[in-house]
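Q: Please design a sequence for this.
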């Protein structure tokens, strides 16, 4: 999910050179509430939350790595979640889209990408009391991102529904017609938010006004509007990466037809 104030102010924050990113040391004056790990800054997060978030970031990388391995035209999941581009007009194009997953697969060391005023990907654990109401006072949003600053707020429901890849049983073949949402780890939400921060993806709408979240609606959005909607919608990245991950570890073949998914969607 995203908050959209000051969009233009955020556009200058992308792809700054590595030399522009400060490295914290004992001589640098830093807020005591910020802890740095790799390319991430954890703001107002206690040690336990930081440890858990690092597990989910690693899961996001694992999802992205499998997505990178199959992200090419002709793959059934790729075509379903991102559409086809026979006229070579898509943005991002197929090569660019694949490179996005490559970057996400090593995001903990992605020091050439700037997502905030100091160049780090900022995760904030103080969302519930934030004056800008980053979580929109809802129990359903696991995370919210502010485009202008690149800050990703971790909301109450993120912790309530926390699930790492190591705790999800690999699906069996007959579960392939179920919703991927059942098998999507919490790290997938971080992957979703990172696409907002780095590439300014959106949360697109279907014709009926529903947001394109989760397995069914991400597929339906591509059915309605083709590649443009799929490649600019954050949750299509999460769902494709989830399908790619479990496709590499089980014989379940996930539905690419939104009308044939047998279980409901999650509440992003």
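A: Design:
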């Amino acid at each position: 999910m995203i908050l959209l104030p000051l969009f233009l102010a955020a556009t200058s924050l992308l792809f700054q050179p590595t030399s522009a990113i400060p490295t914290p040391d004992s001589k640098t004056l830093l807020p005591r509430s910020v802890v740095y790990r790799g390319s991430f800054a954890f703001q107002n997060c206690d040690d336990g939350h930081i440890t858990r978030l690092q597990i989910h970031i690693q899961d996001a990388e694992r999802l992205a790595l499998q997505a990178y391995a199959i992200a090419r035209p002709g793959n059934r999941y790729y075509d379903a979640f991102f559409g086809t581009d026979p006229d070579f007009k898509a943005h991002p194009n197929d090569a660019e889209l694949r490179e996005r997953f490559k970057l996400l697969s090593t995001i903990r060391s992605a020091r050439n990408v700037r997502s905030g005023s100091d160049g780090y990907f900022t995760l904030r654990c103080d969302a519930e009391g934030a004056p800008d109401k980053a979580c929109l006072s809802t129990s359903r949003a696991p995370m919210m991102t502010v485009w202008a600053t690149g800050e990703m707020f971790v909301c109450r429901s993120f912790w309530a529904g926390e699930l790492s890849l190591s705790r999800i049983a690999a699906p069996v073949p007959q579960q392939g017609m179920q919703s991927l949402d059942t098998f999507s780890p919490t790290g997938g939400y971080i992957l979703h938010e990172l696409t907002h921060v780095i590439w300014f993806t959106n949360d697109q709408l279907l014709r009926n006004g529903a947001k394109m979240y989760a397995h069914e609606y991400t597929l339906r959005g591509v059915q309605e509007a083709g590649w443009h909607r799929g490649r600019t919608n954050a949750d299509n990245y999460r769902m494709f990466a989830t399908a790619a991950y479990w496709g590499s570890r089980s014989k379940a073949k996930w539905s690419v037809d939104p009308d044939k998914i047998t279980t409901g969607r999650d509440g992003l």
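Q: Thanks. Anything notable?
A: The two ends are 8 Å apart (CA to CA). Residues 168 and 183 are 7 Å apart (CA to CA).
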